[in-house]
Design brief:
The complex is a heterodimer of chains A (about 110) and B (about 120). Chain A has about 110 residues and is mostly beta strands. Helix content of chain A is about 0%, strand content about 55%. Chain A starts with a strand and ends with a strand. Classes of the chains: A mainly beta (about 110), B mainly beta (about 120). Chains A and B meet through strand 4, strand 5, strand 9 and strand 10 of A and strand 5 and strand 10 of B.
Chain lengths: ~110, ~120
């Protein structure tokens, strides 16, 4: 089965600083999803990447999938307290009937 | 267009009771996935269902846990004879197909507390 490793496990940054969260897979990634979860709440979809080298941005968050499709990074520019939460990467097997496997998550704290 | 609806949001059960968690997928979605999140841990896959069929239950505990997704009505995750270790947040997701693009939509979860 596919395993995803996220780093760092937790991150504390000062408001305004940039940060990067990494997600590494044991197998080729066919679909890589980034979600955000606030404590005690559900998952909010951020972005989905499929192609090697693909990069997507939404507001101040950018996600990339490397050419070999085994690693993805999530970059936040000029972080704000509203960015705080748990960031989860998920991957599916690329075939009909597969399901999402998640990394353990990265807990982000942004201090004002 | 309502998203994935889970109820109840919070559920308290005494040890030995049964817990029933419901999930109504997004309109037009016929694939349902259940995940469990233990305190301070990530999401662990439990079961994947399509209408009237269990496709993958590799993450389901062998005993006390069952899931169904009937032709009509919501998907149900059922936990019999609950124990303290079952206390967790249970999330449901749905997709129209295998999740292409924006396909996996998550509900807000049911937080089960076993006392």
């Amino acid at each position: 089965s596919q395993e995803l490793e996220q780093s760092p496990q937790s991150l504390i940054v000062q408001e305004g600083k940039n940060l990067t969260i990494n997600c590494t897979s044991s197998k080729t990634l066919y679909g890589l999803y980034w979600y955000k979860q606030k404590y005690g709440e559900g998952l909010i979809f951020l972005m989905m990447l499929q192609k090697g080298g693909e990069e997507k941005s939404h507001e101040k968050i950018t996600a990339k999938l490397d050419e070999k499709k085994q690693q993805s990074s999530l970059h936040i520019t000029a972080s704000q307290p509203s960015h705080a939460g748990i960031y989860l990467c998920g991957a599916d097997g690329g075939t009909s009937g597969s399901r999402l496997t998640f990394g353990e998550g990265t807990q982000l704290t942004v201090n004002p | 267009n309502a998203g994935v609806m889970q109820n109840p949001r919070h559920l308290v059960r005494r040890r030995g009771q049964e817990a029933r968690l419901r999930c109504s997928p997004m309109k037009g979605h016929s694939h349902v996935y259940w995940y469990r999140q233990l305190p301070e841990e990530g999401l662990k896959f439990m079961v994947y269902l399509q209408k009237e069929n269990i496709i993958d239950e590799s993450g389901m505990p062998k005993e006390r846990f069952s899931a169904e997704f009937p032709k009509e009505g919501p998907s149900i995750l059922r936990i019999q004879q609950v124990v303290r270790g079952d206390s967790a947040a249970y999330f449901c997701a749905s997709s129209a197909d295998r999740g292409l693009g924006y396909g996996y939509t998550f509900g807000s979860g049911t937080r089960l507390t076993v006392v």
